[in-house]
Each structure stands twice: as structure tokens, then as C-alpha cells.
Specification:
CATH superfamily: 2-enoyl-CoA Hydratase, Chain A, domain 1
CATH architecture: Alpha-Beta Complex
Shape: elongated
CATH class: Alpha Beta
Number of helices: 10
Number of strands: 11
Radius of gyration: 27 Å
Oligomer: single chain
CATH topology: 2-enoyl-CoA Hydratase, Chain A, domain 1
Distance between the termini: 101 Å
Length: 292
């Protein structure tokens, strides 16, 4: 028999009170916490192939989704791209800069981050790659306009209305974009950059090890380690990975990270010289024939 201590509080009653007041709420909180407060997530954006108006739209929408979802605490951009149009590359560069004001953004290079793709990567908090990754090609490709000529049956209000400008004007425009690209890299890499801008302006492609020596990247690590680096920047110990493409564009709701089938990457297509590009300015890697 439990003996009363004279003031109505027995040891059994104290134990029951402890269970009701402390243990039960604690257990209930541990059970409900994951259901009420979602597990912090790291969103993955895959930048594959050329940067064009269509792929830039997909990238931008995924980045916007991450910025608007409070559960997503960081973003990792997995890059396999030779670059693309100058205007779209610059637009995504500024989008990444804006996103960094709200959450960490990390880039990791699989095969190739050339030209406009590296332009975008330079806006991130950190860039990682593999030893065999190809990185760089900091420069511009442009098509020159035709030499102006007169057509008797065509009326224009200016001598360059049909041509967009002089050929030397296009060269100056390309040079302006090149220096803007170089300055973006210098700003993004800051004191981590060990390369002279004159060297980078040669538009060479560097392997991962050489890119690390030049300060174009922050380390040689795997993609999974890059996720961990993003988690560190976000102050996360436990996190869940989410593919942002199906979350942003899928019709059937969230798809588990390990269940999402990432589209296969055709390396031959990735490295192939593009054909039938519309006239314009491109931050793109192109391997020209040896006689050019």
C-alpha cells in the first residue's frame, strides 16, 4: 500500500503528474514535430545542354519555386552545359545573384560548365567540380552582319537598318560583353581567383584540377559532397534532397528524390558543335576547325 504523506501528495501521484505534465507532451511533440514542421530541404536544379529561351525559363521557374518554398533552405545547381545565348545567360546570372540574398546557392560541375554556364556558376556561393570536368571558355561568339549593300526596291530610313550595324560595331559589342563576363567572374570569385584576367580572356577550357589552381572553382568533390556543402552554408545537419523540376512542373505532386528519373545526358551532343544557330551573341563553347 502506498502511504499518503499527509498533504495529499503520494509518490504515485507525483509520478503520474510527471508523466502527464512532462513525458506525454514531450513524446507527443516528438511525434508531431516532423508532421507540423517539415524537414529542411535542399533543392536540385539540373542545367543541361544549351542555354536558350526555353531552358532559361525552366531554370528560372525552378529557382523561383525554391525561393518561395520556406522548406527549401539551399539550392544546388548541377551543371552539364556548353553555354548559350548571351541575354539568357546574363538573365540567369542575375537571378542567381538575387536568390543568394535569400538562401545559399552552390554549383557543381559534372562534365562541362563552359561559357554562359560558367557565367551563371560564377554568381553562386561556391563552385565544385570533378578532376575531369571541363570549365571555362570565358568569352563571346558572334555572327558578323553582312556588308551593307543597296537594294533598289527596298526603302530603309538608315544605311544600317537592314543589317543592324557595322561589322566593327559588332566586334566592339562582343568585346563589351566579354569584359562584362570577365568582370562578373572577378566579382564572383573575388579573392579566390588566382588567374590573371588576360589569361581567362583567351577563352580556354580548363580541367577540374587546373580550374582549382586558377581559383575558378572551390574544390574537387563529388556531387553528393556538394549537397553537404550547401547544407553547411544553410546551417543544416539533417536535410532532404528534392528535385525541383518535377516539383515545379509535375502534375502529380512531389516526386521522391531517389525515385525521380534524371534524363540521360548524351555527352556527344553536349560537346557537339551547334548548327543553324540564329544570328546573335552567345556565351558558348564551340570547337572550331584547326584551320580557323
Amino acid at each position: 500500500m502506498v502511504q499518503n504523506d499527509g498533504d495529499g501528495r503520494s509518490p504515485l501521484r507525483l509520478i503520474l503528474l510527471f508523466l502527464v505534465v512532462i513525458v506525454v507532451p514531450l513524446a507527443l511533440g516528438l511525434y508531431l514535430a516532423p508532421r507540423i514542421v517539415p524537414t529542411p530541404k535542399i533543392g536540385v536544379i539540373r542545367l543541361n545542354y544549351e542555354i536558350s529561351n526555353a531552358t532559361a525559363f525552366e531554370f528560372r521557374e525552378q529557382l523561383l519555386y525554391a525561393r518561395n518554398d520556406p522548406a527549401i533552405q539551399a539550392v544546388v545547381i548541377v551543371i552539364n552545359s556548353p553555354g548559350g545565348t548571351a541575354s539568357d545567360s546574363e538573365d540567369l546570372y542575375m537571378d542567381v545573384l538575387a536568390a543568394r540574398q535569400e538562401l545559399p546557392v552552390v554549383a557543381t560541375v559534372d562534365f562541362l560548365a563552359a561559357s554562359g554556364a560558367y557565367y551563371i556558376a560564377s554568381a553562386t556561393d561556391a563552385i565544385y567540380a570533378k578532376p575531369g570536368s571541363a570549365i571555362g571558355s570565358i568569352g563571346v561568339i558572334s555572327s558578323l552582319p553582312d556588308t551593307p549593300f543597296l537594294e533598289e526596291d527596298v526603302l530603309t530610313t538608315g544605311p544600317y537598318k537592314s543589317f543592324g550595324g557595322t561589322q566593327d560595331g559588332y566586334v566592339r559589342r562582343a568585346e563589351t560583353l566579354k569584359f562584362a563576363f570577365l568582370q562578373a567572374v572577378a566579382n564572383g570569385r573575388a579573392d579566390r581567383l588566382n588567374a590573371d584576367l588576360d589569361l581567362l580572356s583567351r577563352a580556354e577550357i580548363f580541367g577540374g584540377v587546373r580550374a582549382l589552381e586558377l581559383g575558378l572553382i572551390d574544390g574537387i568533390i563529388s556531387t553528393s559532397e556538394a549537397y553537404d556543402k550547401a547544407a553547411e552554408l544553410a546551417g543544416l545537419r539533417d536535410y532532404e534532397l528534392v528535385e525541383l523540376y518535377p516539383l515545379t512542373f509535375g502534375e502529380d505532386g512531389p516526386v521522391a528524390f531517389n525515385a525521380y528519373q534524371v534524363p540521360a545526358i548524351d555527352q556527344e551532343k553536349l560537346w557537339a558543335t551547334p548548327v543553324d544557330l540564329p544570328p546573335g551573341l552567345y556565351y558558348r563553347y564551340m570547337e572550331l576547325p584547326a584551320n580557323q
